[in-house]
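Hello everyone,

My group is preparing for a crystallization screen and wants a predicted model to guide construct design. The compound we'll soak is zinc ion. Before spending weeks at the bench, it would help to have a computed complex in hand. I've included the protein sequence and the ligand's SMILES below. Output in structure-token form would be ideal because that's what our pipeline reads.
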Amino acid sequence: MDDSQNKDSEHMGWMQEAMNMAEEALAAGEVPVGCVFVRDGWAIAKARNRTNEFRNATRHAELEAIDVILSDIELTPAISEYPLATTTLYVTVEPCIMCASALRQLGIKEVIFGCGNERFGGCGSVLGVNAELKHPVLPAYKATGGYRREEAILILRRFYITENTNAPIPKSKANRVLKTDIPPAS
Ligand SMILES: [Zn+2]
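Reply:
Good plan to model first. Here are the tokens for the complex, ready for your pipeline.
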């Protein structure tokens, strides 16, 4: 294997860990998005979406993990300008505008994601918060999608096909079928 193949298999491995967190989110009735933060070859934090649990639309997987990293004295021993400068994020869905901005403020090294986020994506789909948008101080970061993209899309579909079955007036979704065709990345 050459270097890029090695890098790809490394990315696929970490993305599998992120997918495992997305599965956990799905099992808990949350929009299935999962992530893992990797530093020096180690997963320093794993998290998943918890927006329903806390009834708080900002409790995205990325921010959940960031809270853990920044509050752990071993992971963040001193206050520094860019505490994530040596840390790579793997996340199943492109970070939203809010998370993409938080990651830039904390100086994330790089972001690897699964599928794009056409409605809220902050790494190019809606806004290029990671790099395209010029900022006078904050460093840009590289964000690359397409790792386990189809899996990331399919687990979201699995969620949206079953959601609201506990609602007071359930919408009839009995006739819905899981679409498994995936359009090519744009
Ligand atoms: Zn987000």
